Amino acid sequence: MYFCLKPHPLTVVYNFAIQLVNAVLPALGLFNEKIKKGVIGRKKTLNFLLKNLGKGDTVFWFHCASLGEYEQGLPVFKNLKSIYPKAKIVLSFFSPSGYEIRQENPITPLVVYLPLDTKKNVNLFLKTVRPSLVVFVKYELWPNYLLALKSRSAKVFLISALFRPQQYFFKPFFKKWRQLLNSFDHIFTQDKGSKALLKGIGFNQVTVSNDTRFDRVSSQLEQNNSLAFVEAFIDNKTCIVAGSTWQEDHALLGSYIKESKQDLKFIIAPHKIEKQRIQKLKNSLGDKAVLYTNYNMETLSKKQVLIVDTIGLLTKLYQYAKVAYIGGAMGSTGLHNTLEAAVFGVPIIIGRNYDRFPEAKAMLAQGGLVSVGDASSFKKALDAFLDDKNFRHECGQKNKTYIDENKGATALITEKIQAMLILQNSSN
């Protein structure tokens, strides 16, 4: 929802709605663990920050909706931290899936849930944090927060942004609400189309930077990605890695595994690590499969399928793939990160629902990625990669080239933000 600077009937509607949500969330949390975590976490936010921030601190506030946005923002966050080591960084999330990384994040111990966008919450949060720099990632456009920031001295940026014509503030009826964008000192978009849309409504403080995730995944190549248990499992055989999978994906994979006569290895890393779902997948594959949390090093090589029932390993697993399958697009969940596999130069197979993912469209057009719609087309695509080593290598290299050609967003964004901060400080 977007706000406008001038009074507008929908302003009242929005504020009423957010107050209502704020009131009913505790009750809803009784029936939903994810909501419950958010409610409990938000109660702690202000006290936690008050204990850890002083009046003389220079504070940078970075906000992400969830884990995906955090991955996009992290390269920029790390750069800014290295340039301004004395600044205290507050990292906020809306979703529990983002907040849970608080122990492993490399930039700050000050990780909090963002209080809901009521006027009272906004005023208390900003009074406590007093940020001099604010960076939002992708879609995080909370009206009351942005309007309150507009009246303060902080520099406010939106990075890795994507805009589409269907978004309502590009519609004539919401013309007055477009003023919300003026809360940003600068917007960095992933593509030229987004810049054109913003220019069309009169917002010109825009730079096309591409997606910071290209830099993020490229940094994976600089790390030690070897995993001894994976090497023991594969045992020099051809391996297919299926990452961030859901039930729809498991149906495809299970059908292929059961029917295939080839001596192949499969690593399946489900998106949700839930005991019941994991056990269902394990049972469907029978004795061919072993769980990561239950493997025996001595007998690991005898299994055909390794189910990785933990988090944090997927980015390393892709280096062992001859072909990668990325989940989420067979159903309505949404395609997961294809770039993590592409950086290792492997061909990729995805489901049919990828329209909202420009990187998938690009790799499909370049010939490094294949979209399938059912078990039959999945078998055809996978067999084509497995039967022709040269074809497989060629397609994989197209993906690697795509990554290499789109790096550089982090440096561009960081340099622009730094320049604007220097200019601001020199004028004060």
Descriptive labels:
single chain, 428 residues, alpha/beta, Rossmann fold, 7-stranded parallel beta sheet, 17 helices, 45% helix, globular
What does this structure look like?
There is one protein chain. The chain is built from 17 helices and 14 strands. The protein is α/β, with parallel strands linked by helices. It folds into two domains: 9-210 and 408-427, Rossmann fold (3-Layer(aba) Sandwich); 220-402, 3-Layer(aba) Sandwich (Rossmann fold). A seven-stranded parallel beta sheet has the order 3-2-1-4-5-6-7, sandwiched between helices. The protein has a seven-stranded parallel beta sheet with strand order 10-11-9-8-12-13-14. β4 (131-137), α6 and β5 form a beta-alpha-beta unit. The longest helix has 20 residues, at 9-28. The radius of gyration is 23 Å and the shape is globular.
